[in-house]
Amino acid sequence: MLRDCGLRLPLTVTQEQVTYYATPHLAEFSPARFPVFMWHGEHNFYGFPVYGEVATKLGQHMGGHETSADERTFEPDPVRRKRYARFVEQHLPRFGGPELYTKTCLYTVPPDQNFVLDTVPDHPQVTVAVGAGHAYKFAALLGELLADLALDRPPAHPIEAFSLTRPALTDPTFVRSFHV
Q1: SS3 state at 142
Q2: Angle at CA 88, nearest 5°, toward 176 and 85?
Q3: The pTM is what?
Q4: 80: which of 60, 105, 112, 127 lies 20 to 30 Å off by Cα?
Q5: How confident is the model at residue 136, as a pLDDT?
Q6: b (16+ CB within 10 A) / e for 47-85
Q7: Are 73 and 15 a contacting pair, CB within 8 Å?
Q8: How is the chain split into domains, by residue range?
Q9: In the chain, helix, strand, coil percent, each to 5?
């Protein structure tokens, strides 16, 4: 649809995954005792306490290989399984346990790893949103901002940084700046 509006975005699609572990130490990882976390290092890991599943959850932000919606698989990446196991062993040994399951998903990411929230120039009836791999955490706010755009109201918060006209989306020499 965007191509029909004369717009082509330089997006990268990666296949990501999260793993749920049947830790034998459930009480230690209850929400009352253990936080949601983000670990920044050579690889960026995030995790969740036991919530919604009788398991802990670990993922790697931007750790997946490039793919497309047509070429992606639903098979967990064994390289990342090993990477997760090393991280858990080194930093959170009681967090792990037998793997319950691993799920894959896709991230669609602009070169600057920021959201896209805008209306298409010359087609103001078309509102665009790209979540950049982390929109779920902001779903309520993004929904309000997109409603403002769709209804031609001034957004309740500044969104210029997420414009379709920013250099990351318009300058072909812009260098990708997300952590993979």
Answers
A1: helix
A2: 80
A3: 0.86
A4: 112
A5: 82
A6: bbbbeeeebbbbbbbbbbeebeeeebeeebbeebeebbe
A7: yes
A8: 12-109, 112-170
A9: 25, 25, 50
Query: Are 128 and 6 within 8 A, CB to CB?
Result: no
- Both tokens of 174, joined, read 């812009």
Query: Where in the chain does DSSP place strands (E)?
Result: 12-21, 37-39, 44-48, 56-61, 99-109, 116-120, 123-130
The class (CATH top level) of 12-109 is: alpha beta
- In which residue are the tokens 């930093």 written? 91
Predicted confidence pLDDT, tens digits, the chain (180 residues): 888 888 999 999 999 999 999 999 999 999 999 999 999 998 999 999 999 889 999 999 988 999 999 999 999 999 999 999 999 999 999 999 999 999 999 999 999 999 999 999 999 899 999 998 888 889 999 999 999 999 999 999 999 999 999 999 999 999 988 765
pLDDT the model gives residue 180: 54
Identity of the amino acid at 38? M
Cα 11 to Cα 35, 97, 127, 136: the distances in Å are 32, 36, 17, 18
